[in-house]
Design a protein that fits this description.
The protein contains 13 helices and 12 strands. The chain is α/β, with parallel strands linked by helices. It folds into 2 domains: 243 residues, 3-Layer(aba) Sandwich (Rossmann fold); 70 residues, rRNA adenine dimethylase, C-terminal domain (Helicase, Ruva Protein, domain 3, Orthogonal Bundle), CATH 1.10.8. The strands form 3 sheets. An 8-stranded mixed sheet has the order 1-5-4-3-8-9-12-10, with helices on both faces. A two-stranded antiparallel ribbon has the order 2-11. Helix 8 packs antiparallel against helix 10 and helix 11 packs across helix 12. The protein starts with 24 loop residues before the first strand and ends with a helix.
Length: 343
């Protein structure tokens, strides 16, 4: 599902060629010793005609506030699945179950899928579609408890999936694969990296956001999100998606993005929460000279200790006096934050 409001494709990025239930809903309860479940029937072909007919039959109306735009280009839906490269022992988190068109595909390959749907009407439709699938846990809830916190129910469902995999004697990865509603895309990815990092994330997002997620220092889209993701992941825009790929059609373009966690680079961040806050604080004043922002955070330009502290920091990193935050790469930001935060 998608929220309307997507940026236009830009150049400069490499691309690869190419009825109401409020509790958790599962198709069946998998046993701890069972092998990976397999979807025996072929995935339903989610087309515009199929959705219109289905929604007409059940009296469902689109709620634009929840970002309900469904991916109906079957080739792109398949591309999303292929790009995720799901393996038999993987646990997959999907945010925005919709009618479960993607969920079916994920379940064919994964050990366990935890899929989240905020709309109880869609959760019911998805549950009915997945009735014969025993490796999917459908959770009817908001994925976020707040802007800066994931829902405890979502985290609990993921923990349960990990316990089932461990009981089955298997080890695998944790993946995020989703047609992300734009209204939650940034906090979902940011909070996962903060508290429950994925091995990889393959998602559809607003193209403008895809630009930010993969932007490098000096790019016009480079911001706090670019640094937060760039300090921990390798990112790539796989394909731009036109409005016609979705129903209802959004007003602008989208993209499939893949992010791969770089464990070594992530380990260089001494305090993830502190670093996250530091970067956000800096980019609240992104158009200002970095020195002035750092002075404010250190105690103000009227404080001799603060001035001396920032002078030493600039000397250590060889920073130009008038440099701005958007000119500094993620790895340097990690080192800068560490030195800034030292007693």
């Amino acid at each position: 599902m998608k929220k309307t409001g997507r940026g236009r494709p830009k150049t400069g990025h490499k691309k690869r060629p190419d009825r109401t239930r409020q509790n958790d809903q599962r198709t069946t309860t998998p046993t701890a010793t069972s092998e990976q479940s397999v979807v025996t029937k072929s995935a339903t072909r989610q087309t515009t005609a199929y959705l219109k007919k289905l929604f007409s039959e059940v009296g469902f109306s689109i709620d634009s506030k929840k970002g309900q735009n469904f991916l109906v280009d079957l080739n792109l839906l398949d591309l999303l699945e292929r790009t995720a490269d799901i393996q038999p022992d993987d646990i997959v988190l999907e945010v925005g179950s919709g009618t479960a068109a993607l969920t079916e595909r994920l379940a064919r390959s994964a050990f366990q899928v935890v899929t989240i749907e905020i709309d109880s009407r869609l959760a019911t439709l998805a549950h009915d579609r997945l009735i014969d699938t025993d490796n999917v846990q459908l959770v009817n809830t908001d994925v976020l408890a707040s802007k800066n916190k994931l829902s405890p129910r979502v985290l609990s469902a993921l923990d349960e999936a990990e316990k089932r995999r461990e009981a089955a004697g298997k080890k695998g990865r944790f993946l995020l694969v989703a047609n992300l509603p734009y209204c939650v895309a940034t906090p979902v990815i940011s909070n996962l990296l903060l508290t429950k990092p994925f091995t990889s994330a393959t998602v559809t997002v607003q193209y403008e956001m895809a630009d930010r997620m993969t932007a490098t220092a000096g790019h016009h889209s480079y911001n706090a999100l670019s640094i937060w993701i760039g300090s921990q992941c390798r990112g790539e825009i796989i394909r731009s998606l036109p409005p016609a790929a979705f129903w209802p059609r959004p007003k602008v373009d989208s993209a499939i993005v893949r992010l791969d966690l770089d464990e070594h680079r992530r380990a260089q961040i001494s305090d993830l929460s502190r670093f996250h806050t530091f970067v956000r604080d800096i980019f609240c004043h992104r158009r200002k000279v970095l020195r002035g922002v750092l002075l404010t955070l250190a105690g103000g330009k009227k404080s001799p200790d603060a001035v001396d502290r920032i002078d030493r920091l600039y000397e250590t990193f060889g920073l130009e006096k008038n440099i701005r935050a958007e000119s500094i790469d993620p790895d340097t930001f990690v080192q800068l934050e560490y030195e800034f935060s030292r007693p």
